[in-house]
Amino acid sequence: MIKPMATPLYRITEAALRRALLEQLRANAQASDLIIEELGVEQGAARIDVAVAAQRFAGYEIKSDFDTLDRLARQMHAYHRVFDTLTIVTTDAYVAQVAVLLPAWWGIVVGRVAADHGVVLETIRGPSSHPYQDARSLASLMWRDDAYAFALEHLDSGVKSRATRDALYDLIAESVPVEAIKARVRTLLHQRLEIRQQAKPQKLPDASCLTV
């Protein structure tokens, strides 16, 4: 059983956990890996803090000393339909609670304050793959025009030019293998990030990381 440590002198903010996580992910990333902050899933019904699009889709949800777990219980089901692996990045204040709340295949990472007042991350439990990805949920990560072009490639005559976004997602989910959908979504996310970076270079959060 995972037990919390004694109450720390400093409370850790979301910005501090995010910075430590992004630094760790970028240090270990392959050249083709795509790291995305604030990725909306289920057509915006939920938004995960950090996602990594590689051969597998990995999601990371952050809960700091200043957050609550109220929304996590609702959002995690949306995350399950999209990500191959999921990890909660939290603090000792919540580690015991998330161990009970989340399925056993979620990873658990705990942020703690180092001697230099920086935040270090410790993996308490590594994530495991799970079989719950949903083809429609993955398809809904495409914009409407992207979904239309993708459907045309695979279905041709079965696609109506005025089909709604939802109709296209349904059609793709019914007719295209999940792995093919993942591959196209990964390509589209790369393209979107390149466009965004050209407009505004991505920076690590610069907020104060610790509060007494």
TL;DR?
The chain has 212 residues and is of the alpha/beta class. Helices cover 38% and strands 22% of the residues.
Number of strands: 8
Dominant shape: elongated
Percent in helix: 25-40%
Strand content: 15-25%
The biggest beta sheet reads:
6 strands, mixed
Explain what you see.
The protein has 212 residues and is α/β, with parallel strands linked by helices. It folds into two domains: 11-131, Trna Endonuclease, Chain: A, domain 1 (3-Layer(aba) Sandwich); 135-199. 38% of the residues lie in helices and 22% in strands. The chain contains seven helices and eight strands, in the order βαβββαβαββααααβ. The chain has helices spanning 14-28, 72-80, 95-101, 135-139, 144-155, 165-175, 178-199; strands at residues 11-12, 34-41, 46-53, 57-62, 85-90, 107-113, 119-125, 210-211. β3 (46-53) and β4 (57-62) form a beta hairpin. It starts with 10 loop residues before the first strand and ends with a strand.
